[in-house]
Amino acid sequence: MSDRIIKIFDTTLRDGEQSPGNSMTLDEKLQMAKQLAYLNVDIIEAGFAISSKGDFESVKTIAEQIKGPVIASLARVKKEDIDAAWEAIKYSARPRIHMFISTSALHMQYKLKKSPEQVLQMAVDMVKYAKSLCEDVEFSAEDASRTDRDFLYRIIDATIKAGATVINIPDTVGYAIPEEFGGLIRAVKENVSNIEKVDISVHCHNDLGLATANSLAAILNGATQVETAVNGIGERAGNAALEEVAMALYVRGNYFDAKTNINHKEIYRTSKLLSNITGVQVQNNKAIVGFNAFLHESGIHQDGMLKHRETYEILAPEVIGLMPQALVLGKHSGRAAFKDRLDHLGFRVDEDQLQKAFEKFKSLADEKKLVSDRDIESIVLKDTIPVEEVFQLKTVHVESGTDITPEATVSIINTKGELITNTAQGTGPVDAIFNAVESLIGRKINLLDYIVHAVTEGTDALGEVTVRINEDNRVYTGRGSDTDVMVASAQAFLSAINKMLHDQP
Ligand SMILES: [Zn+2]
How far is the centre of ligand 1, averaged over its atoms, from the C-alpha of 251 (Å)? Predict the structure, then answer.
């Protein structure tokens, strides 16, 4: 096994979080950051501190609470950005300021309206300034893959002299082709003096579906850090997927003569946690973490698998923490068996979370004879993400059918602890529920998205509902799960509202 370690810089909470549908609250980001620490990523880019008050608070909270990985904040090459980044990350034992400026002719001329010499001077001055605050400074030459080579060498050389510890070469617009991108990394190594003193990082976007391939080509040519996001989320078509880069290096470590520090057994859970937080499921055929990634459908393949697993399997699902369904729990299963199952699936819960999840499991087992691992994941992932309950759902009754106007009666407990009830009509049962909730809380809600997803097959499956609402350009995601999709809908709607009210009472 190789000793060459490729550092994983995870940007799920910055590049990923800023992409549509993936916004998270502070509590959700913290939950995700904890999981990234279990996954053992080397660097967590926690956010872009100057971009908003909320972003600043999340970066600061993560820097204060998450131990282990380096905690980075993004900054432009501006004093106020660097100050905000430093104020947020200085609580970490291992802080990093990550700053960027565009270096391609196209970006410098049209976006920045600055000459190459001005850009170079700003980068050098601000790397020096950042270095006066923080030992670890990463410099990114934005749009590097479309930057004039000589200018790229010059700015890298100058920023290393100014004190940068990591040089990032991003394929910002997902334009590069693997062989070409590998050649760029090799050329930087050959043409920049002192490059061996710093980490060479790459940050590839997936516009042509090549983000992982480009990142791997860079590793073959000398990159020592790769920037990735869980499930490949990020701007436009996303970033290189963490699970793809990590598992390519695991399965083909000898070929790359490299490995990562990633704790592979946490990969499946990390992917699931992100999907549960954002409500965005990965496509079924997604590499490594998709629903079909380890299924073998054709007869010939199944026959081969039964004779010898390696005939059609390059990676056992257990390696990423996707455990085989050992036993199915039912209504007679006790707390110990349930806890045992959680341990087997790798969930860490405290007493309080265990009790909540166990109660939910018991009521599910009453409705559904057999409770599978996927059901348990749904229960646990939902209940371990804290949502402050401003309003609490008590009961939902719905009437709908072919010849009646759908009508819903909803009861909730309000902030004063009073039980309040309202009945409303709607074009359908979900609409009626939402109308009843809106009049109970006394405000109109702007609904962006309503998604239903069955956790397992069968008509008694647990239904997961995700609701997205927005207010003042902020998006709030709520989740609910129940064997009754109408109940799950009411839970999800109210949980999104609770998050919104928590943020802006
Ligand atoms: Zn990016």
Answer: 26
Beta-ladder partners of 45:
72
From ligand 1's centre to the CA of 203, what distance in Å?
7
CA neighbor of 320 nearest in space, from 239, 244, 211, 214: 244
How many whole angstroms from 122 Cα to the centroid of ligand 1?
Answer: 21
Tell me the CA distances in angstroms from 247 to 75, 216, 262, 266, 498, one per residue in order: 30, 11, 9, 12, 38
Find the 15 Cα to ligand 1 centroid distance in Å: 5
CA–centroid distance, residue 205 to ligand 1 (Å)? 6
Q: Given the structure tokens 């510890």, which residue do they identify?
A: 165
Centre of ligand 1 from the C-alpha of residue 10, in Å: 11
For residues 491 and 468, what is the distance between their CA atoms, to the nearest angstrom? 12
Q: What is the CATH code of the structural domain delimited by 392-503?
A: 3.30.160.270
How far does residue 90's CA lie from ligand 1's centre (Å)? 24
Rounded to the nearest 10 degrees, what angle do helices 53-65 and 79-89 cross at? 40
Q: Which two tokens stand for residue 233?
A: 């989320």
| Closest by Cα among 254, 236, 201, 180 to 6 | 201
In order along its 505 residues, the chain shows pLDDT tens digits of 678 999 999 999 999 999 988 989 898 999 999 999 999 999 999 999 999 999 999 999 999 999 999 999 999 999 999 999 999 999 999 999 999 999 999 999 999 999 999 999 999 999 999 999 999 999 999 999 999 999 999 999 999 999 999 999 999 999 999 999 999 999 999 999 999 999 999 999 999 999 999 999 999 999 999 999 999 999 999 999 999 999 999 999 999 999 999 999 999 999 999 998 888 889 999 999 998 888 877 788 888 888 888 888 899 999 999 887 666 788 888 888 888 888 877 788 888 888 988 998 888 888 887 888 888 888 887 665 656 678 999 999 999 999 999 999 999 998 888 999 999 999 999 999 999 999 999 999 999 989 998 888 788 888 889 999 988 878 888 888 888 999 999 999 998 998 888 776 5
Give 170's strand partners: 203
Q: For 374-435, what is the HEC assignment?
A: HHHHHHHHHHCCCCCCCCEEEEEEEECCCCCCCEEEEEEECCCCCEEEEEEECCCHHHHHHH
Under CATH, what is the fold of the domain 7-278? TIM Barrel (3.20.20)
Eight-class DSSP state of 283: P
What is the residue extent of each domain of the chain? 7-278, 292-321, 323-386, 392-503
HSE (side-chain half, CA atoms, 13 Å) at 247? 24
Q: Are 184 and 169 in contact (CB under 8 A)?
A: yes
What CA–CA distance (Å, rounded) separates 321 from 346? 8
